[in-house]
Amino acid sequence: MLSKPDSALIIVGHGSTLNPDSSAPTFDHAEEIVRRGIFGEVHCAFWKEEPSFRQVLHCVERNDVYVVPNFISEGYFTRTVIPRELGLDGPLTRFGARAVKYCEPVGSHGKMTDLLLHRARSVAPGVPPEQTTLFIVGHGTNLNDNSALAAKREVERIAALGLYADVQSSYMEEAPLISDWATLASQPNVVVVPFFIADGLHSYEDIPVLLGIASESPGAASAGQASIFAGNPYSLRGKTLFYASSIGTEPGFADVILDQVAAFDSTSR
Amino acid sequence: MNRELLKSFSNWLGDGPRIVGQVRISRAAESWELRHNDDSGELTTYDRWQDARALANLTEDGAFRPIKTIRDLRRGWRLLLASVEDVVRALDYFYPAMLGLWNADSRGELVVTDLRETLARQTGMYRVTQKITDPQAQQLCASHCSLCMKTMLWKIDPAQPITSLAPEKHQRASGDSLPLLCREACNFLIGHARTVVKKAEKEALDAASPQTSS
Ligand code: SF4
To answer: CATH number for the domain including A44?
Structure first.
């Protein structure tokens, strides 16, 4: 098991100025890693919340520092914003005696596939995968990241396992559109897992509206929030629909963060 | 945990009571008690440092608090914690990074970044903030930073201090209160700088092409 009492871990996330949902999973995973006592120090840092990327290095004592982006894919934030704000010039940056080790984002880890399968199974317990269409939903048309590509990659991996009759990626803003789920799905059961790092407007409101399981009324998010998941399964358009919360809220993400640290060590050895 | 920080914070805390932002920290039998500085009487008790996150997240009215140093911490709670470590962890939720910056400052290691340097670094949708004029920046600080409890350490540029705020805004708290330090314009301010620039650009455009009245 990983033991790094002389190292610090910084988990970096996007955060939001509008709601606490965006940073919540990052804090949850950090609390879990603190509980396990693996690192000498554990910190979080955010683009839109505090501690900010620029503040966090002032808070760290250890000279051996791992930075793990809690992002679903490589993109503008992991390649431009985080390195710039933390002053990093590559996977390993030295500031005097301090070494900052910049790890891969969590979403790139091979375990994502298992977590998606786990989430899909637990939202639809006892539902036979061989009679189920599984949708992995990304944002799409977002120049800031490659989350659409990441969703496609996960779909290929899950499809290769041959468990589900049908596995598809779909998007909020580009084809194949998740709003067309009922025609896209070949099976009587449909499981939808948002491939996002946190719950929030997209998973509480936008996707449910596109699926037709929530109305467009403003405030649906604040009124409904987690209750949208309590409504499972939805009988709709001739299918049985199961809607999961964002993959990033899966507690197994804490392990993926630790795996990205271990992966850094094994590639730089 | 940052051990140096823990040590200096323990020394500073002593036997209490002490104030960090709007939070009062004092001894309560075998524990440390944190509560809103203006509170007394009947309060709801919590006992895990993790509870501080939910207490710090929303205002009394349920609005999200992205900048925790705005003076709108909700009231009505007390948090009982067993150790100074747990107090530090809780304060990291109430006032993220503030103990760390205070510790770095007392060790003479805090790096301050002036506004023009912060803006010069921006890319993407925030690059446009580089166009903010000095008077607009002064006004922006007056309207937004005045709501925040942090001591502002940065200037517009090395030759131009922020003159639009009360002098106390630039003086570190002392005595029983821990100084909350602003070492660089926060993203909240940068976001508003973008709004100011965009609005000025739109006004200039509207002025250049006046609607012809028919
Ligand atoms: S820039 Fe600093 S002083 Fe102004 S609101 Fe942000 S944190 Fe507070």
So the answer is: 3.40.50.1400
Helix, strand, coil % over all residues of chain A, rounded to 5: 40, 25, 35
Q: What is the value of pTM for the model shown?
A: 0.91
SS (H, E, C) B66-104: CCCCECCCCCCEEEEECCHHHHHHHHHHHCCCHHHHHHH
In this structure, the answer to whether residues A262 and A230 fall within a common structural domain is: no
Going across the sheet that includes B23-28, the strands are B44-46, B77-81, B31-36, B23-28, B18-20, B177-178
**A123 plus A243 within the same structural domain:** yes
Q: B3-106 and B115-201: same fold? A: no
SS3 B185: coil
| Complex ipTM tops 0.85 | yes
Give the DSSP letter of residue A200. S
Whether residue B101 and residue A58 make contact (CB cut-off 8 A), yes or no, is: yes
Domain B115-201 -> CATH class: alpha beta
Q: What is the dihedral of CA B183, A95, A84, B141, to 10 degrees?
A: 10
In this structure, the residue with its CA closest to atom 3 of ligand 1 is B145
3-state secondary structure (DSSP) of residue A61: coil
Q: Which CATH number fits domain B3-106: 3.30.1360.190, 3.40.50.10490, 1.20.1640.10, 1.10.1760.20?
A: 3.30.1360.190
pLDDT digits (tens, 9 = 90+) for B72-114: 999 999 999 999 999 999 999 999 999 999 999 999 999 999 9
Domain match, A91 and A38 both: yes
Cβ <8 Å between A20 and B99: no
Distance B182 CA to ligand 1 centre (A): 6
Rounded to an integer, what distance in angstroms lies between the CA atom of residue A18 and that of residue A33?
A: 26
Instruction: Name the domain count of chain A.
Output: 2
What six digits make up the tokens of A63? Answer: 């000279």
**Segments forming the whole domain that contains residue A208:** 112-249
CA B106–ligand 1 middle distance (angstroms): 20
Q: In the Cβ-directed half-sphere of A259, how many Cα atoms lie within 13 Å?
A: 14
Positive or negative CA dihedral for B117, B120, B125, B129? Answer: positive
Per-residue pLDDT reduced to its tens digit, A36-47: 999 999 999 999
For β-strands A132-138 and A166-171, DSSP reports them as parallel
